[in-house]
Amino acid sequence: MSSSPGTPHPLLPYGWSDAVAAGFAAAGAHGLSPGRVVRVDRGSCEVVTVDRSGRAVSVRAGTGAPASADPTGHPCTGDWVTVDGEQRVVRAVLPRRTAFVRAVSSQRSDGQVLAANIDQVLIAVSLADELDLGRVERFLSLAWESGGQPVVVLTKADLVPDATTLSYLVEDTERVAPGARVLPVSAATGQGMDLLADLVRGGAAALLGMSGAGKSTLANALTGTDAQRVDATRDADGKGRHTTTTRDLLPLPGGGVLIDTPGLRGVGLWDADGGLAQAFTDVEALARDCRFHDCSHRTEPGCAVLAAADDGTLPLRRLENYHKLVRENERIAARSDARLSAELLRDWKRKKALGRHMMERKRGPRQDG
Question: How far apart are CA 76 and CA 119, in angstroms?
Fold first, then answer.
């Protein structure tokens, strides 16, 4: 249902735009309503949609039978969908502009979409912990692959009172985040929060990071609400407890939306070739001067990447993590290819069996004697 001419669309606070309207029209969803998924939980999802009176309402809708066994095709927080208001079920997921996808686990080849249709990926990194640059590079690889613009948000900056030390931490992060903004913030003191609010205003941002990174506190500060529960920090180490359990889409007061996500214990790469290239643009640039175009940057003579690592231009730690992430991505890709081949083989066998059955039916029952 569309809004009256001259009046704002009821889903405008949730990111409705001309592009979304065109996508909904292209879906040919006659008799269905547009909606955006704000939360997914246990086979159903909460969708903000438009009722018969033209108002935005939040409904609990079933996700229906998945059209594909691939979990990346199932409804996810941030998705635009078509909703059957009478049956309270999501009928279709509209094509995604962008999506942050990780591997479900190191033992499986499935991907998991954490947030869809996002413009920015806010990677929350707590300064209450020792800065893990390898983990930042991992998140950046997936963030670039998502199609969103990465922003590394160094949270709890108030725990680093020395300005010189904080500047070094920012510089170290910037070196491993070419093309990404690095912003130290403190929700407790307000440091950097105005800049962060300006960055996310009017778009769609996903907030991701490890448990205890302060994402819920950050989400509450950006939305100006207490939408996300925050527990007190532990006395032993000053770290926050894991409180967010679902991925929630929250409207921002200045326009736009924020998708807050649960703390991640791990984030595996999934089909991230392009993201790795963007996260490691320095390695990719050096590789152009290697003697061999297919250089693996390990033992080959004339390797410009190894030469840079030897003379300190390229930190050895960064090169080692690059190799590690490339291997991981290739391993997941190989498993995905094997799974796809197995699925194609099963489909072929089913079609062959069905064809044989249809031929036997056409021939009719066998005549003995």
Answer: 16
d(CA 135, CA 130): 11
Residue among 321, 344, 327 at smallest CA distance from 272:
327
284 backbone φψ class: left, alpha, beta (φ>0; ψ -120 to 50) = alpha
Q: Rounded to an integer, what distance in angstroms lies between the CA atom of residue 169 and that of residue 174?
A: 9
Cβ-in-10-Å burial (0-12, 13-18, 19+) of 99 comes to: buried
For 26-74, list the strands marked E by DSSP: 33-41, 44-50, 56-62
Dihedral sign, Cα of residue 251, residue 254, residue 259, residue 261: negative
pLDDT in tens, 21-60: 999 998 887 889 999 999 998 778 999 999 888 999 999 9
Q: Which residues contact 117 (CB under 8 A, 6 or more apart)?
A: 15, 78, 79, 80, 96, 97, 98, 99, 204
Between CA 141 and CA 332 the distance in angstroms is 15
Which string of DSSP letters, residue by residue, matches 1-30?
-PPPTTS--TTGGGT--HHHHHHHHHTT-T
Q: Pick from 117, 63, 119: which is nearest to 92 by CA?
A: 63
Backbone angles phi, psi at 56, to 5 degrees: -75, 125
Amino acid at 337: D
Q: How far apart are CA 13 and CA 261, in angstroms?
A: 20
Read off the pTM.
0.85
Tokens 């205890």 appear where?
Answer: 212
**Cross-strand bridge partners of residue 155:** 126
pLDDT digits (tens, 9 = 90+) for 144-168: 999 999 999 999 999 999 999 999 9
